[in-house]
Amino acid sequence: MSVLKLLIVDDEPGIRSGITRILRNYRVDYPFLNEDFKFEIFEAETGEIGLEVIKDKKPDIVLLDNKLPGISGIELLEIIRKDHLDVYVMMITSFASLDLAVRATKNGAYNFIPKPFTPNDLKTAINELAKHLFLKRVTKKMQESGKEVRFQFLSILSHELKSPLNAIDGYLKLMKDRQLGDNLEDYSEMIERSMIRIKGMRSLIMDLLDLTKIESGKKVQQIESVDLKEIAQMAINTMEPMAIQQNIKLILDSKLESNIQADIDEIEIIFNNLISNAVKYNKENGTVRISLTQNANEYKISVKDTGIGMKQEDVDKLFHEFTRIRNEKTKHISGSGLGLSILKKMIDKYNGKVEVNSVWGEGTEFIVSLKM
Amino acid sequence: MNTKKILIADDDQDLLLQMELYVKKMGFEVETADSQKEAEEKLNNFNPDLCIFDLMMENKDSGFILSYKSKKKNPEVPVIIISAVTAETGMNFSLETDANHTWMKADLFLEKNVRAEQLHREMNKLMRL
Ligand SMILES: Nc1ncnc2c1ncn2[C@@H]1O[C@H](COP(=O)(O)OP(=O)(O)O)[C@@H](O)[C@H]1O
To answer: What is the dihedral of CA A298, A304, A309, A310, to 10 degrees?
Structure first.
């Protein structure tokens, strides 16, 4: 149960108590939102008192009469607008005063409730306003926590996480029902495939961890003097076991003269992503050449492979989240489609850029430049 | 009676394999395709008696496109579209309205985790077996 604060500004005590009576026990609820509202009501007999209450109690809604003893409703509306007070004003007007209505709208009144009104008119108007307020609150909350943008990301993510689960679930069901008989040997392909899907899921989760580290901002960037060659060698060592299986040579060639000022973890992510892709999307007996160079104002990292390459139309989509190129050659390679989008975020942090040269069927070179 | 031929398309090779296994066990002849593109080719030379298409492959609406092409070629061949979309996004398809019928040319929508027995029943019904 949420509470909406509502202030009635009217000089007629009968109207104030009438409205209070109608709304005191009124509940606004939306079955689909899982949330309902009740009202906490304040009353003021003049605009001046109303203004005090607005500043003091911060109501969400003001029901405002125009004809008041001191400052008029319109004048109060002007003050509210000028002082950027965050309330929704609903004017109580008589049908006749169209001119007033126009002026009020210009001054930011949300809408009108014409006098005389029945309890139902009032409820309908308040209901609509409450709904509006609620949506505004939710949107604001989502924007504050960046949730709006995340929504699409999350729905793709949930799909990406669910597909391997579905696949594994399917295999387990087949095995449970002994669909291929009682011989365990006959299920080895299913077991193998399940393990591959688990591996893919694990790499997705690892990438996600990188991504949350970056985005939560919790991890403070620690700039220190970093030897790019050393980090490159570490990434090579990590990939070596996989490279050996396909007889892929990893060559490091450094012409660096000085260290870069950077965050070690971030540089590691850059190398890990580039080198692991260069191995993953390589061919048997291929090579990966990592060249490090520097000139007056930047460091250049080039990772060049003799792998499957990419078509130009695919290169253009490369740095978006969850982009995976689907074709005959990539069919059996697992991945999350997050690696390069993470890489791009890292490079942006250093005002750097990344360039891709790729020839379909022959190989790919990624060139990252980081400013000194 | 000759064996009915079923064309199944899904871009998840594991789900494709599982479905193939089940449908073969039901006693049908199966041809598989792991992309919309491959399915389009197979539509032409396999002449299936029934098609089962995954909704989202290269395109978000691959299943619809395939269904449309299949119906254009042979309106008599029933098409089942399988999707995970309903559960995931709250999107809701139904074939209740005529308007949907005209452009979503499929005979049946099923959820991705449909049970083999139910799938079998629906297939038989559609092929009037
Ligand atoms: N060195 C490379 N050679 C060929 N294709 C590559 C290379 N690096 C990346 N790609 C393509 O770009 C896609 C996105 O890469 P990435 O974001 O790292 O995700 P993934 O987890 O799929 O590897 C990959 O699926 C692959 O098709």
So the answer is: -10
User: Which of B11, B18, B25 has the CB atom closest to A170's CB atom?
Assistant: B18
**What ipTM did this prediction achieve?**
0.78
Q: Which two tokens stand for residue A58?
A: 């911060």
CA of A190 to the centre of ligand 1 (A): 26
Question: Which residues of B fall within a CB distance of 8 Å from A158?
Answer: 88
Cβ contact A93:A126 at 8 Å: no
| Cis omega (within 30 of 0) for bond into A116 | yes
State yes or no: pLDDT of A305 exceeds 60: yes
CA distance B60 to A53: 54
State percent of chain A over pLDDT 90.
Answer: 49
Q: Locate the ligand 1 atom nearest the alpha carbon of residue A319 and give its number.
A: 17
Say if residues A281 and A330 touch (Cβ distance below 8 Å). Answer: yes
pLDDT per residue over B85-116, tens digit each? 544 433 434 443 444 444 556 888 888 878 88
CATH match for B5-126 among 2.30.30.60, 3.30.2420.10, 3.40.50.2300, 3.90.79.10: 3.40.50.2300
